[in-house]
Specification:
The chain is mainly alpha-helical and about 80 residues long. It has 2 helices and no strands. It has one domain. Helices cover about 75% and strands about 0% of the residues. Helix 1 (about 5-30) runs antiparallel to helix 2. It starts with a helix and ends with a helix.
Length: about 80
């Protein structure tokens, strides 16, 4: 893999983190709207599952980015 491809891979990894963070924000807002004063305080199973999935996607994206960052810090990239 050449340097240009490595930089593109690193940029994609960061973009995955950014997009996953946005999805967590959206899912959290939807979940939060189900609590008072707007909601009943009983969030739907779908809202909880969506939030959980968004958190998992963020964790996965962060792990991938951390791997690349560690390679950079170790001088292996």
């Amino acid at each position: 893999m050449n340097d240009e491809q490595k930089r593109a891979e690193e940029a994609e990894a960061m973009e995955r983190v950014v997009n996953a963070t946005r999805q967590v924000q959206v899912a959290f807002a939807a979940l939060q709207s189900q609590y008072p004063p707007q909601g009943s305080g009983k969030p739907s199973k779908m809202a909880l599952q969506t939030f959980d999935a968004a958190l998992q996607a963020l964790e996965d994206a962060q792990a991938g980015f951390d791997d690349l960052l560690n390679e950079l810090l170790d001088g292996n990239r």
